[in-house]
Fold this protein.
Amino acid sequence: MTPAEGARGPRLALVGFRSDENSSFLRGAADAPPLIRSAFASASSNGWTEGGIELTEADFYDAGDFGGTEGPAMQSTIESAIAALLGRGLMPISLGGDHAITYPILRAFAKKYPRLSILHVDAHPDLYDEFEGNRFSHACPFARIMEEKLAGRLVQVGLRTVNAHQRAQIARFGVEAIEMKDFREGLTLAFDTPVYVTFDVDGLDPAFAPGVSHREPGGLSTRQALDLIARIGAPVVGADVVEFNPKMDPTGMTAMVCAKLVKELAGKMLESAV
């Protein structure tokens, strides 16, 4: 997809960040963005969302994929890329990469949205102060985000690996943590600010999305996740889909799940923008 000439012009941006240097246990998430794009464009489906919005090329600007650098340079690249898209009035959907990319993304968002809430779907809280000596690990982004007050509210859904340190961090930052054992059908989340959605694919049960580095049984079904997105009670202004590891996805099923998440998030964002 390229910038399209339409009645309104593109309102959404797709951007990939091919970075997994901050992954623990397994690498491979850097290879995900091209496969999510391919699944998203597959003729096996169509452009209609479940909410009745037809997505076309005219709705998207494709900003391409960024990678090839590491450390602070990659963080700066991510923040600058998102800031440029926001500066053009576009709502970015970022394709990871590991969850470490969300911290620099939110640094850019906070400059445009001083009042922002985050809906975070994940098996893990990702609130470690540091993990294996790395304060920018994919296990730490929300500690950095909350320390810098890049969002006023963080709601986490699907957690099922919360240890004592992370419980302390949840209390420290006032996080609203909905562990999977406490999840109930029909959960509706009300917000009084714009919302950024960050979706770690391992928030889903691995029966639905096996292509992740950290498989944690007992998660959300794809249906539950889609319903949760549909029921967000506030404008959704940006999103990311992270931690898809193609090396763990021999059938390509997880790529299609990621594409479905992108489609429904895009529809929700356009619905919010009407």
Observations:
- Residues 1-6 have pLDDT under 50 and may be disordered.
- DSSP finds seven helices and eight strands in the chain.
- The radius of gyration is 17 Å.
